[in-house]
Structure formats: C-alpha cells, structure tokens
Amino acid sequence: MQVETKISINGKDYEGEVEARTLLVHFIRDVGGLTGAKVGCDTSQCGACTVHVDGVAVKSCTMLAVQADGTSVTTIEGLADDGDLHPLQEAFWAKHGLQCGFCTPGMIMAAAKLLEANPSPSEEEVRHGLEGNFCRCTGYQNIVRAVTEAADAQKEGAE
Amino acid sequence: MYPANVAYHRASSVAEAVELLAENEDSKLLAGGHSLIPLMRLRLASPASLIDVGRIAEIQGISVCGDCVCVGALTTHSTLASSCDLQSACPIVPEAAALIGDPAVRNRGTIGGNLAHADPASDLPTVAVALGATIKATGPNGKRSICAGDFFQDLMTTALDDGEVMTAVCLPAIQAGQGMAYAKMLHPASRYAVVSAAAVVTVEDGRCAAASVAVGGVETAPAKASSVEAALTGNALDAGVIACASAAVADDLAGDAIDDVFASGEYRRAMAEVYVRRALTSAAERAG
Ligand SMILES: Cc1cc2nc3c(=O)[nH]c(=O)nc-3n(C[C@H](O)[C@H](O)[C@H](O)COP(=O)(O)OP(=O)(O)OC[C@H]3O[C@@H](n4cnc5c(N)ncnc54)[C@H](O)[C@@H]3O)c2cc1C
Ligand code: FES
Ligand code: FES
C-alpha cells in the first residue's frame, strides 16, 4: 500500500508516496539521499540509525516512514552549523572517537541528546546514555573521552 | 530486512481504532512499534494491515486521582521514567521504566504495547502483576477492566481480544507504610530482563502486614510468588526473614522454566531467589 508521506529532513521537505512498510531510515537514505544514518543490525539494538524526530532521539530502523509523517527529522548531516562542525563532531575527530566510522553518526546523534539533557555527564553517565549504540572498533574509551570533551567545549562556548 | 508488504491506517480516536480493527482482517495495532517492527523486520510477524494508534491523544498521559494513578496506554517509557507524579504515587513504575532497553527505545516504546506484547523478558508485566494493576480496554462490545493477574496468560498471549484496544492502566497509589522495588538482571546486549522481581510490602507496627511479589523471565508469564508472600506476612522484615521467604520462590516456580542459549531454566530459577531477595530488601528499607 502506498501512503502519501511528507517529512522535513534537516529543514528541507521531502514528499511523496511511499510503501507503508518503508522504514524511516530507508526514507532518509533513499528518498532523502542522506546516507549518514546507517543500518547496522536487524534487531533494533545497534543504534547506527539514530536520528532526531521532532527533537527526540529515535532508532530510525524501528519507525515506519509513515509514522514520521509531518515531523521534522535531524540527521548527522544537519548537525553542523553552516559548515562549522558541531562540538561533538570536533571532539570525535580530536579524540579519535572513531575508527571505521560506521557507528559514528548514530553515536553522535545519541550523544547530542544526552548532552542536552545532562550538560556535565560523568563518565558513567556517558556510558549509560550510549547504551543503545554499539561500536565494534574503538572499545568505547575514545568515544567516552570525545563526549566528555564536547561537554567541556560546549560549556566553555556558553561562558 | 524490509518488513513484508502491509496496509496502513491511522486512527485518530479509540472508537476509530476499534472500527478499523473490525474492518481489516489480520490487522495489528501499532503503538511505539518497538516490539512489532523488529518482529516484522525479521518476518516473524507479517500482518496484512497496521492500525496506527500512535497519535491518539486521549490515551496518553498520567493522571492521579485519589488512590489510583491512571496511565494512558500510549504513555512512553521515557515519560514513565521521568514523571514526578508517578515518582511519588507509584515509584516502582519509573524505577522499572528507566531500566528498559536504552534511551531511544524508551522514547518510542509505550506501556500499552509493552503489556499487550506480553514478552516474558519485558519489565512492566511483572510490575503490573505485583501492583495488582487494572488494564482498561475498549472493544466492539464496549469497555471492560481486566486485572493484571488474569491478563497475562502465556508467552505473548493476553486476555485482550483481537478487536480490543487497551486504553489505560490503573495503578494503585502507594499507601502509608508501603515500600516497593524492582530488581532486574539485565541481558548484557538487549538489556531485556533475564530474570526480574517486583515487590510491594506493607509494614504496620514493625511487621509485614501484606506483601505482593511477582517474578518475570522464568516462566512464560509473570509468576505471582504466593509462597514468598505467605512467608513474609506477620514477620518483621529483617535479613533472615527475607532470605528465608525468598528461598520459598522455588515452590512458586514449579512449572516449566524458559530455557535458552543465554540462561538455562535451572539458572533462571536460582536467580529468581536472588532477585526476589534484592527487591524485597529494597522494598522493606523503603517501607521504613
Ligand atoms: C533494543 C530493544 C530493547 C528493549 N528492551 C526492553 C527491556 O529491557 N524491557 C522491556 O520491557 N522492553 C524492552 N523492549 C521492548 C519495548 O519496551 C517495546 O516498546 C514494548 O515492548 C512494546 O511497546 P510499543 O509501544 O513499542 O508496542 P508496539 O511494538 O507498537 O506493539 C507491540 C504489540 O502490542 C500491541 N499493542 C500496542 N498498543 C496496543 C494497545 N493500545 N492496545 C492493544 N494492543 C496494543 C500491538 O498490536 C503489538 O502486538 C526493547 C525493545 C527494543 C527494540
Ligand atoms: S540499524 Fe541497528 S538499531 Fe537501527
Ligand atoms: S568506529 Fe567502527 S563501529 Fe564504531
């Protein structure tokens, strides 16, 4: 069944008929042409597909595009501000928070919401907040360092 | 994998959802989708149509009236975990909700979907049984209430009829002298419950006047631990009494235990005693 669906992704509207079974992540990648959000698993566990739907972190592989009809989605491509990398993007780069990079878009989108809710998380809180995001390369140490560094940078920026 | 082809209808009210369920053969309600969509992706479920209840405002939110906390079926785990009203009126629910999956799962998953799905590894069914919650449903024949003890029948099987929509879950508010706690052994990858226990104790004059304990993850539906409850009632809740009563859980779990690659039935039974003890210890402390 085809369903008329309109989703704003990073401020741009994408509209058309999609099959009801289309997952939001496929809408973002195939209709939006934005390939930052990845599909890393079939079990909703890895978090590589994490995006923000109306400001809330969501696994876009576990939401139908039709469920997101009328919403505003932000993906990793929408995080930089006019070419200036987001503090998390800077910090993942500076602290080597990635190796292959497959988990990184989801990791950063989840971390962005974590820092919004808790601007000064402890190491444990960072690990807890990223429970839904798997990384098969880094062993997480540098990811935690990157998120902590971004938290510090955001606080300095705000001062 | 892509889910199989499916038709999609969005309901704007409970009445419309009931109508759509009746009109569409082999249809399934879709709430947060965090149990149903994974099953559809694995093609373990392939309903002919989905009735999306995710935007029905009348079944969202939390309201406290007197001795009852009414939680709309569509209330998300995140909302449960962060609700101040629930924290004061029924603190075991936010405690358990905060342990569900991960933040993104909690942002989408709902209490109604969690209870209706009746996965033995879920958290809220065990809590609902220990609390003696009441599940409200609306169907073609009108409204009815089902107590949690009768609701969970078997693996992913509940007392809801195919044509019914769960609208709310009514939780008894905490009383003076009561303490409640949830203890969970998390599966390290999925964070589902391998074994869990929910306990509510009432202490009067230093002794346990009433206790309600439920165990999840061992049998196909949450098990009420009546032997544990009997061993507590009338006694001061010290460590010895709690340990003795927790050991009695073996008598309440005499049926077939879930046995899989991660945890054998024997292991689950052994852990049930440990988690009942932990839940009771916290509940007794909180009862003061
Ligand atoms: C990675 C991951 C980890 C998870 N970890 C946990 C965990 O640790 N603990 C835990 O308890 N759960 C866990 N879950 C499951 C999660 O809590 C689900 O959100 C929940 O079980 C189902 O709620 P939903 O709103 O997503 O329901 P859906 O997936 O939309 O629906 C589930 C079922 O309930 C039915 N249904 C939904 N709403 C209603 C209603 N109002 N009336 C009647 N029937 C209805 C549907 O038809 C369907 O059969 C996890 C899920 C994932 C993906
Ligand atoms: S692709 Fe793995 S959680 Fe979405
Ligand atoms: S950097 Fe390779 S999976 Fe995380």
Could you characterize what this model shows?
- In chain A, α2 crosses α5.
- The mean pLDDT of chain A is 96.
- Chain A has 5 helices and 5 strands, in the order ββαβββαααα.
- In chain A, a hairpin with a 2-residue loop joins β3 and β4.
- The radius of gyration of chain A is 16 Å and the shape is globular.
- With 159 residues, chain A is α+β, with helices and mostly antiparallel strands.
- By secondary structure, chain B is of the alpha+beta class.
- Chain B has 3 domains: 46 residues, Uridine Diphospho-n-acetylenolpyruvylglucosamine Reductase, domain 2 (2-Layer Sandwich); 114 residues, Uridine Diphospho-n-acetylenolpyruvylglucosamine Reductase, domain 3 (2-Layer Sandwich); 110 residues, Enolase-like, domain 1.
- Chain B is 35% helix and 27% strand.
- In chain B, the strands form 4 sheets. A 5-stranded antiparallel beta sheet of chain B has the order 4-5-10-6-7. In chain B, strands 11-12-13-14 form a 4-stranded antiparallel beta sheet, sandwiched between helices.
- In chain B, β11 and β12 form a beta hairpin.
- Chain B is globular and about 60 Å long.
- The mean pLDDT of chain B is 97.
- The interface between A and B is medium-sized, with 31 and 31 residues.
CATH class value of the largest domain in chain A = Alpha Beta
* Anisotropy-based shape of chain B: globular
Oligomerization state: heterodimer
Rg of Cα set of chain B = 19 Å
CATH superfamily of the largest domain in chain A: Beta-grasp domain
Tell me the domain tally of chain A.
2
Provide the spatial order of strands within the biggest beta sheet of chain B. 4-5-10-6-7
Question: How is the topology of this model organized?
Answer:
The complex is a heterodimer of chains A (159) and B (288).
Chain A: E1 2-9, E2 12-19, H1 24-31, E3 50-53, E4 56-59, E5 72-74, H2 87-94, H3 104-117, H4 123-129, H5 141-158
Parallel strand pairs in A: 1-5
Antiparallel strand pairs in A: 1-2, 3-4, 3-5
Helix pairs in contact in A: 2-5
Chain B: E1 7-10, H1 14-23, E2 27-30, H2 36-41, E3 49-52, E4 62-65, E5 68-72, H3 77-82, H4 84-89, H5 92-97, H6 103-108, H7 111-117, H8 124-131, E6 134-139, E7 142-147, H9 148-151, E8 152-154, E9 157-158, E10 165-172, E11 178-186, E12 193-204, E13 207-216, E14 223-224, H10 226-232, H11 239-247, H12 249-252, H13 265-287
Parallel strand pairs in B: 1-3, 2-3
Antiparallel strand pairs in B: 4-5, 5-10, 6-7, 6-10, 8-9, 11-12, 12-13, 13-14
Helix pairs in contact in B: 10-11, 11-13
Bound molecules: flavin-adenine dinucleotide and FE2/S2 (inorganic) cluster (2 copies).
The site of one FE2/S2 (inorganic) cluster has 10 residues of chain A, from loops.
